[in-house]
Amino acid sequence: MFIMPSELEGAARSRLLAALPAVLPPLCLCAAAGLATIGLAGCSTTFTPRDRAKIESLSPIPAPLPRPTNAFADNPQAAALGKELFFDAGLSADGKRSCATCHDPQKHFTDGKRFADGIGSGPGGTRNVPSIESVPWQTWFFWDGRADSAWAQAAGPIRNPIEMANTAAGVRERVISAHLAAWTPVFGEVPEDPDATLAMVGKAIEAFERTISPGPARFDQYVADIRSAGSSSVLTPQEAHGLEIFIDDGCTNCHSGPLFTDGSFHNIGVPQVAHGGLDPGRALGAIQVKQDPFNCVGVFADPGPTGPADCPELRFLDTSFPDWPLAFKTPSLRNVTKTAPYMHDGSFATLDAVLMFYSELPGIPLVGHRELTLQPLRLSGGDRADLIAFLGTLEGT
Ligand code: HEC
Ligand code: HEC
């Protein structure tokens, strides 16, 4: 029996549509399906108006979010100072590790390793180094969101015994001995209080991080064409089919918006490995961010132009939310083809391994439950290749 493509939903429809052009003239197929057609290429890609709205929601990358608690966020001199600090190994206790050691600009601000090399001999913790290219658009920082601003985040690795292992006092000394020329025009005198100095260091580093972006990608050109002309030939049929799977198979439930992340935390049930014990994820991060002296309601947060920031995300954060155990932040997918290995613990070496995981959803989480919306997608090898081709269109140019 022949089923009209329009009677099918989601991935099944996309697979049928992908198979049909071989047997039917493309234009007949589009007419029969009764679907709005965008992205020509032999009419191999057809999107409903709902799909088209989803696609348009993924581009372009907007302006960086305002940061009311950092008065220096958009100060160019602070960004220049922040750049100096970001590349200064003198901020670490042994003088060997700067932020850029782990967040290497040549590797989209990651290190390409499963776990970072930290101070000492072992791996630098149990988490994979995330890119920092989406910092200007995030609300929570670290895989577990234990910092609520990029300037508060920066205070973490400098004092982390397995990362840079310094103290606030050590950072203050380093600022005085190595960075006064760039510091003084921005902040004036170095405060006596080492924590106040550390907060300023974080604010300068955030100003630098705000000058970084994943860069406009081929996908952005595709969406721009669709907006202006209704169609585009920028994506190959394979890439366009990958995009169709991406939006029809629920990836955008979490990898949403122009940065391909909802900024929230989900337990997707990545198999837990015995490396330093069970990682509680957001369940612990939510408690830590409430207690962080550098958070949005703390004394180091600058008042915004209209007075102290409201900090609703922090004030209304429910630390006992039942879905937090083993939940990790949805990572951005821009430049994802360049930032292997993947997941909070770097447990997947390739994108194909990630897609095999979404395909099978093996195992069950040791604590809590896997996000209920996730179902095994049973992607064929061809579908996975098409999805990876689509993810390649998110590489910044
Ligand atoms: C030893 C390696 C190492 C060094 C040095 C290091 N980082 Fe990181 N960075 C990491 C790891 C690992 C994570 C993830 C940790 C986690 O989630 O618990 C991370 C997370 C981050 C994040 C959060 C990104 C996000 O999307 O949540 C930012 C921003 C960041 N680092 C900036 C910095 C800055 C600024 C410095 C220097 C002051 C620095 N890092 C030094 C390894 C490092
Ligand atoms: C329920 C929310 C959700 C859905 C749906 C979802 N993801 Fe994810 N994705 C996440 C979270 C959370 C992580 C990080 C999990 C971790 O580290 O434990 C992640 C990680 C990834 C990564 C690894 C990125 C990196 O830098 O480590 C890729 C690639 C990815 N997802 C692609 C997809 C694709 C493709 C789909 C659709 C087939 C999809 N995701 C559906 C939430 C989701």
The parts where pLDDT drops under 50 for at least 5 residues are: 1-44
- What's the end-to-end separation, in Å? 46 Å
Radius of gyration: 23 Å
Mean pLDDT: 87
What's the CATH architecture name of the domain at 76-131 and 149-209?
Answer: Orthogonal Bundle
Key words describing this protein structure:
Cytochrome Bc1 Complex, Chain D, domain 2, two-stranded antiparallel ribbon, 2 strands, mainly alpha, binds heme C, globular
Q: Overview of this structure, please?
A:
The chain has helices at residues 10-19, 26-33, 49-56, 76-86, 99-102, 150-159, 168-178, 180-187, 194-209, 218-229, 237-248, 282-291, 312-315, 351-360, 381-392; strands at residues 265-266, 328-329. Residues 1-44 have low confidence and may be disordered. The protein has 397 residues and is mainly α. Among the domains are: 5-61 and 215-253, no CATH class; 76-131 and 149-209, Cytochrome c-like domain (Cytochrome Bc1 Complex, Chain D, domain 2), CATH 1.10.760. Helix 4 (76-86) packs across helix 9 and helix 11 crosses helix 15 (381-392). The protein has a two-stranded antiparallel ribbon with strand order 1-2. The protein contains 15 helices and two strands.
